[in-house]
User: Fold this.
Amino acid sequence: MTKALVTGATRAPGRAIATMLAKEGWEVHALGHDRIALDEMRGEHGIVPLAMDLTDSEYVRAVAEGLEPDVLGHAALRWPEETRFLGLAEADIDMALDVNLWATLHVIRAILPSKIEGSRGAFVMLSFDDANAKSAIERAAAGAIDGFARALADEVPGSGVFVHRLSSGKPPFLHLGL
Assistant:
């Protein structure tokens, strides 16, 4: 059975990815904040719930390393309500970068060695395109994820590891309320 770890699994795009994989027979481990949504996903689709804070990089790394998923679907997207850069508090900037950028780097770094060693695996990162970003912080994080995905793909050619960034502003995620 193929195993997936999906972050941001209790919100629209992550939940869609997690439930689709579970319906296809994958063993899905869903990481998210909303315990009620995680319990629903377990009951309806047999998804393994992981209620945790994605910004706790040490704990997330330990869980990710222990799971050894074949696929990581990183769909955690969390943004401040304020869209004007000068209106953001430092905590808003930190939260946006912690969830949307740093967590991506940490969880992939935890899983990547085993994927290279096994000569197979996939990392799929969901982020905005510039045209769909509502703020400077969204655009900055999206640009960083796009650059990271391209650089990582360049770093692992021939290893059996697939790296891809999906745009949340394009199908199949266009109408999921992002």
